[in-house]
Amino acid sequence: MQLWYSERHTQNVKFSIKVDKQLFSGQSDFQRIDVFDSKEFGRFLTLDGYMMLTEKDEFIYHEMIVHVPMAVHPCAKKVLVIGAGDGGVIRELVQYQQIEHIDLVEIDELVVEVCKKYLPQTSCCFGDERVHIYYQDGLKYIRSYENEYDLIIVDSTDPFGPGEGLFTKEFYGNCFKALKEDGIMVNQHESPFYDEDAIAMQRAHKRIVESFPISRVYQAHIPTYPSGHWLFGFASKKYHPLKDLNEIKWNMLGLKTKYYNTRLHLGSFALPNYVEELLRDVE
Amino acid sequence: MQLWYSERHTQNVKFSIKVDKQLFSGQSDFQRIDVFDSKEFGRFLTLDGYMMLTEKDEFIYHEMIVHVPMAVHPCAKKVLVIGAGDGGVIRELVQYQQIEHIDLVEIDELVVEVCKKYLPQTSCCFGDERVHIYYQDGLKYIRSYENEYDLIIVDSTDPFGPGEGLFTKEFYGNCFKALKEDGIMVNQHESPFYDEDAIAMQRAHKRIVESFPISRVYQAHIPTYPSGHWLFGFASKKYHPLKDLNEIKWNMLGLKTKYYNTRLHLGSFALPNYVEELLRDVE
């Protein structure tokens, strides 16, 4: 027998992973949740059939969405994480002793429960005493905060289904408001390669540019996401992602990373011309 | 009817493209050659079933294998290209007026003929008077040259089948010999992500490090290659790929590129930790 998981990266492109077995399949109030075991990628989680993370390459996404802003902000103490029910962002954040408080707002409690049970590699650190979980819609949660956070990490799904509200102008404006005067927001920013992803990426970028004085985009190689070329948005009230990177200070922390390093931090903001053009078109 | 081209990126991972129709299928003395038309990627060429190039993303590979060394070497005039029967490397090279002579050594004449007929986007510049084509095995060709070339570009297939000899210590040693005293060799260097590719990448790197005093690796996002995370090797007798990059001079040339720029040049040498470790293991 052969069992294959397939995801359509576009209508005309399919990415398939040979599966050993399906460990979980369930329907929450928000989405279908599945967990599979595979030889190539270890365990992997899909939501509504879309790849969220695999044990083999999740380190890339989670390191890049956390360490880039943390190496720029001089002393982030209070952090808000939206989405991220798998716990990967939390695992990276709790390594920083300076962080005093982490609020995690995840719309779907079942995602957290499933990840706690099947994906210990990412869900290992929910028990950290600084972590506070709220099962709410991030779009609603953020409305009531002002001048509260040093860093907001938007670890959303794609801009349709439960994640849709996290790509709106209202949401980015409220993130701006909820950040302190030197706060940083980082978000998963879709991909520039396939047309449909590129349009979503441009739409998000336009709205972030309208909300924040500093808005730059950086990239990483994430093999299990469409095209493998994935972007993150760095939006900030005060700090510049390159000029305000404190390489020595970050390296002095001695954190163990498999993807991120401060040289790569600088390099990841150097984008291909065609991506720069897509961004400029909406700036 | 649905027609899908599939490539196994590993035994457990499959990448599939919906095909409009097959334009060519033939067997040369060396390999099976196929050309397809697709909505997502335009025309694409496969050799022995492996993806070589698509019209949608070939610019990334060809720009990165040509402009990186050309922006470092102060005045490359005589260039040897091994493989590259599709013409993409030639198309990028002939944009440099300083180049006086290009030798192209391709083992398989049928690849050139097929690309001339079906892939004008890459094969457009074979007619340039500076281009001289030799239908020979690059491994044999290179043996008889000494102190001849400013730049050698090794645009090989994977390290099995016809491309195997282009990953040997003998070959790299002969490239060193065929280069002038300030010559540069650039090669396609496989991918660090899937185990089998990573082993091939390490093997190539070890042999290049043993042959050249300066040997660095750089990366690009190539969506249609396994994992989308592709590496190139920069091996040199004298020039350093970062310290000797002349950004102003290259930008003064006014070449139009869709991927390459000199900021990205610098960034592309900043590798993830896990890739650095794979390289260090064999250095």
In short:
The structure is a homodimer. With about 280 residues, chain A is of the alpha/beta class. Chain A is built from ten helices and twelve strands.
Protein architecture, described:
Two copies of one chain form a homodimer. Chain A has 283 residues and is α/β, with parallel strands linked by helices. Chain A folds into two domains: 51 residues, Spermidine synthase, tetramerisation domain (Spermidine Synthase, Chain: A, domain 2); 223 residues, Vaccinia Virus protein VP39 (Rossmann fold), CATH 3.40.50. In chain A, 31% of the residues lie in helices and 31% in strands. In chain A, strands 8-7-6-9-10-12-11 form a seven-stranded mixed β-sheet, with helices on both faces. In chain A, helix 6 crosses helix 7. Chain A starts with a strand and ends with a helix. In chain A, 48% of the residues are buried. The model of chain A has no long low-confidence stretch (mean pLDDT 96). At the A-B interface, strand 2, helix 9 and helix 10 of A face strand 2, helix 9 and helix 10 of B. Chains A, B: Catalyzes the irreversible transfer of a propylamine group from the amino donor S-adenosylmethioninamine (decarboxy-AdoMet) to putrescine (1,4-diaminobutane) to yield spermidine. Chains A, B: InterPro entries: PABS, SAM-dependent_MTases_sf, Spermi_synthase, Spermidine_synt_N, Spermidine_synt_N_sf. Chains A, B: This is Polyamine aminopropyltransferase. Chains A, B: GO terms for molecular function: spermidine synthase activity. Chains A, B: It catalyses: S-adenosyl 3-(methylsulfanyl)propylamine + putrescine = S-methyl-5'-thioadenosine + spermidine + H(+).
